[in-house]
Design a protein that fits this description.
Length: about 375
């Protein structure tokens, strides 16, 4: 084992003291952020779901892209993006939209594997799509001291480019297989959808307004939950009864359990990393290899993030990386991602279009003599 990864032995007293008696163990910033911010936004998403926001997003996506080439897959991407912008959870996103979009994609002609991949990719992107991002964004805001609105604004362009990339892949696949959309007469009209449930978009606008005004994130979430209940009373289709409110409270509590458990486990990982000085070693290694160049240091940080992301969910991965980043680095990383994603898409789109649409792939088979 390399010398830089070696550490002295620790007894059980050192380990338990680090994990349970200090703020870098079980009771870390991650569990504090889950109680202070994340739970309130999960609760807000539960109230929106009970008021019919999922139906609004599905109908709106159908009206916008249902008649296009490969329409059902584009509907899956758009509706998952809409849902991801209010819950930030890939699991709940798949459950709420996948039951509707995956059978629709299979009916049009997409293979079941590709349909599942589209829904999974679109749902995962909700973690980086403002205004309500995944739990990692709140942990990042808590550990770096940056306002959540700053992190959300920096993530906006990479999130849009991510969804454009997913839609481009869906469009090219539909072009190669000549998959048509749904007939317009079988789709709802945008005007009718907005007339029936469009007022439920006001809570999201209200939340963005509060974040722009630098209202504390916890207060903004609490105010928006109350505003959602009031706005839902405007029409009978979305009106929340007392039982719906209790159901939303129950749904929010159930959905938050998994996130809080993950944050608690993350605290244990943070405690071990801090105890063994692994974070300090990795920080010094990245800075040394970067040789004083901010660009190369960001590249190395990106590679380390990719390696961590291959084996860890986003919450423990960002919690491990938080010791490698200075206070202003999250924004710099997002800005680097913006430039990289924009350049990649601008360069690759004409090539992909030529390969997938203009010149379909041809395979030549040569006979083989078997002796």
């Amino acid at each position: 084992m390399p010398d830089r990864l070696l550490t002295r032995p620790y007894d059980m007293g050192d380990i338990f003291g680090q994990l349970f008696l200090k703020t870098e163990g079980l009771y870390s910033v991650a569990i504090g952020a889950s109680v202070t911010f994340i739970f309130l936004f999960i609760l807000f998403g539960a109230f929106l779901a009970r008021s019919g926001m999922g139906q609004l997003f599905n109908d709106l996506a159908l009206a916008i892209a249902g008649h296009k080439k490969g329409g059902p897959a584009k509907v899956a991407v758009i509706s998952s993006g809409f849902m991801g912008s209010i819950n930030g959870s890939a699991l709940s996103n798949v459950v709420s939209t996948g039951a509707f979009t995956i059978p629709l994609m299979k009916k049009v002609g997409y293979h079941k594997d590709f349909a599942g991949a589209v829904e999974a990719s679109a749902s995962v992107g909700g973690q980086i799509l403002p205004p309500i991002m995944g739990a990692s964004a709140f942990i990042m805001a808590e550990t770096t001291g940056l306002p959540y609105s700053t992190i959300a604004l920096a993530a906006l362009l990479p999130a849009i480019l991510y969804y454009l990339g997913v839609i481009a892949q869906v469009h090219f696949r539909a072009g190669r297989r000549d998959l048509k959309g749904i007939a317009k007469e079988n789709l709802p009209a945008v005007k009718e959808v907005l007339k029936a449930r469009g007022h439920m978009l006001l809570p999201i606008v209200f939340l963005i307004f509060l974040l722009i005004r630098n209202v504390p994130v916890g207060y903004a979430a609490a105010y928006t939950i109350g505003f959602t209940v009031v706005i839902s009373m405007l029409r009978a289709e979305t009106r929340m009864s007392f039982s719906d409110i209790l159901g939303a409270l129950e749904d929010g509590a159930r959905q938050s359990l998994a996130v809080m458990a993950a944050c608690a486990v993350v605290g244990i990982i943070i405690g071990v990393v801090s105890l063994t000085s692994f974070g300090t070693v990795m920080t010094s290694s990245i800075v040394t290899l970067g040789a004083g160049s901010l660009f190369f240091t960001l590249i190395l940080t990106m590679l380390a993030s990719m390696v961590l992301g291959m084996g860890l969910p986003s919450i423990p991965a960002i919690s491990l990386r938080r010791r490698w980043l200075r206070q202003h680095w999250p924004v710099l990383i997002f800005q680097s991602c913006q430039r990289t994603c924009l350049f990649s898409i601008l360069v690759s789109l004409p090539i992909l279009h030529r390969l997938c649409v203009s010149q379909p792939l041809r395979v030549q088979v040569y006979p083989v003599e078997i002796r």
